[in-house]
Amino acid sequence: MSEMNRRRALQLLAGLGAAGLVAGCGSDDDDAPTDSGTPVRIGLVAPTTGALKPIGTEIVNGFQLYLDLNGGRLGGHPVELITADEGENARTGQAAVDGLLKQNVLALTGVVNSAVMVAIRDAVEQARVPLIGSNASPATLQSVVYIWRTSYVLNEPGEAMGSYLRQQLPAASRVAVIAPESVGSRDVVEGFRNGFGADDPRIADPVVWTDAATNPGDSAYTADIQRALDRDPDAVFCFFDGQAAVQFIKQLRRAGYQGPVYGPGFLTEGTVLGEVREPEATGIMTALNYSADLNNTANRQFASVYRKTHNTSPTTYAMASYDAAQVLDAAIRLAGDAPTAQEVNLALGRIGQIDSPRGAWQFNQSRTPQQRWYLRKVQRDGEVLSNVLINELATLG
């Protein structure tokens, strides 16, 4: 966040009132220790270069906004936020985490790429430093002690959409499934098949797997899309994000397919709708744990300040990072005047329900959110295309 944006956020905070903006995390403030003033270091891992940079920017913005609205403190302690570039692959992400761990950070947050999350698992667990991941969350990440996630598990958006389409699509319809061959995609597709019914004949087999490049060219998916369309589908379920989503949507429409498209919300989240023309994206339906137009107090306040600070609506990436700061705030406060990484990790299990812009949620035994999932549809909202909230799909986790 630029210095100008920080000033704007603080001005908005003053105008709206601090008491109304800071969401409660379920801790007992009457029993909490007072501000000690002892600085703490937090390491934030996010792509600041490469094709995943737009998502990384949202991750940074969300965390920084919470800091700005809380005087630059977490749990009463001034925060030194150290950001490391995750890059685009497991090697660069692991180097970023290793560098932060050498700087004596109290906790880590961020991580966009599921391959990075898998690669850093052992380093984080061995260092005994809590990581509050705010995006990447592969289903294979099991039996962890120090890794928490404020986002989701990647099979959940597929499961939520699969359950919905199982009820909505006619018995004679046919769904083509297409996705990049990656850790995250396999989780999403598996969740979709579980939600829809793995043996349901409406799912066209096999899955069409594409290249997993984060910045594909303008014909990268042409052959794969044609393979999917050769099955004469009535609907397409897919999983892409960022620049890959932009290219996939454009190439799918260019191939002549004008039918319904479904997927996790990442397909149309962030900067995607700014790069895809209205006829191409209009009508796409997605499942996600957040919509910027959710009508609850925490979201009205969060989304209002975010829009006025960054001149754009917040995404699930920004929201989950904002919540990562929120749960760290509560945990560090519970850990006391001189918190250690291990004490903060123990406190994370005690913070209870989080009053989040997505709606109230809490950590489950897997250290991931038990939360609601929503159905969204791309349509014009005023002058711009938006992911408009349609209804609630399910509570998962």
Brief account:
The chain is of the alpha/beta class and 397 residues long.
Percentage of β-strand residues: 15-25%
Low-confidence stretches: 14-34
Order of SSEs, N→C?
A: HHEHEEHEHEEHEHEHEHEHHEHHHEEE
- Helicity range: 40-55%
Terminal residue distance: 32 Å
Number of contiguous helices: 14
How many strand segments?
Answer: 14
The coarse silhouette is: globular
What composes the largest sheet?
8 strands, mixed
Could you tell me the radius of gyration in angstroms? 21 Å
What structural class do helix, strand and pairing data support? alpha/beta
Average pLDDT taken over every residue: 92
Family: Belongs to the leucine-binding protein family.
Pfam family, one: Peripla_BP_6
InterPro entries: BCAA_transport, Leu-bd, Peripla_BP_I, TAT_signal
Protein name: ABC transporter substrate-binding protein
Descriptive tags:
single chain; 397 residues; alpha/beta; eight-stranded mixed sheet; six-stranded mixed sheet; 14 strands; 21% strand
Topology, element by element:
Elements: H1 3-16, H2 18-21, E1 40-46, H3 53-68, E2 73-74, E3 77-85, H4 90-101, E4 107-110, H5 114-127, E5 131-133, E6 147-149, H6 155-168, E7 175-180, H7 183-196, E8 203-210, H8 222-229, E9 235-238, H9 242-254, E10 261-264, H10 272-275, H11 278-281, E11 285-288, H12 297-310, H13 316-335, H14 341-348, E12 362-363, E13 369-381, E14 384-396
Parallel strand pairs: 1-3, 1-4, 4-5, 5-6, 7-8, 7-9, 9-10, 10-11
Antiparallel strand pairs: 2-3, 11-13, 12-13, 13-14
Helix pairs in contact: 1-12, 3-13, 4-5, 6-7, 13-14
Domain Leucine-binding protein: 39-382
InterPro entries: BCAA_transport (IPR051010), Leu-bd (IPR028081), Peripla_BP_I (IPR028082), TAT_signal (IPR006311)
Keywords: Signal
